[in-house]
Write a structure and sequence with these properties.
A four-stranded antiparallel sheet has the order 2-1-3-4. The protein has one domain. The chain contains four helices and four strands; from the N terminus they run ααββαβαβ. By secondary structure, it is of the alpha+beta class. The chain is globular and about 50 Å long. The termini are far apart. The mean pLDDT is 89.
Length: 135
């Protein structure tokens, strides 16, 4: 018989809206490195990237996805990598820009890097990249 509490925890971890509240509470604020990607043809191709400082837990998926529409590209996945200062809270802009550039390079080299962060589809549901296998 399945455990309803365990099933609910998995569902809570599945959605952006629940994840961002938990992440904010865990870190007391963080910088989100954001990479919008295309996942067509078994690829993970970075399209646009940015970072933002998360200083509250009020942001929901609808608001987030509306902000990402401003990038002007058709994306179907978003990688969010939270980064916190040594004492908690967001990092400085210069560190964030440097970390974002390094993350972009890593994703370009190995698409499996997206599994190290939080990877969501256009509906705010968690995704995972699986290794491609030849038929």
């Amino acid at each position: 018989m399945s455990n309803p509490a365990r099933r609910q925890k998995k569902l809570d971890d599945f959605l952006f809206d629940d994840w961002i509240v938990k992440e904010y509470r865990r870190t007391k604020g963080f910088t989100a490195l954001i990479v919008l990607v295309s996942t067509a043809n078994l690829g993970v191709v970075p399209l646009r990237s940015t970072f933002t400082h998360v200083i509250g837990d009020e942001l929901d998926w609808h608001q987030f996805s509306m902000l990402m529409r401003g990038a002007g590209v058709a994306w179907d996945g978003v990688l969010i990598m939270p980064v916190s200062d040594d004492n908690g809270g967001p990092i400085e802009d210069s560190r964030a820009a440097e970390a974002l550039h390094a993350l972009e390079d890593r994703v370009n080299e190995d698409r499996m890097v997206v599994n190290e962060g939080h990877f969501f589809d256009t509906w705010g549901r968690r995704m995972k990249v699986e290794p491609a296998t030849a038929n």
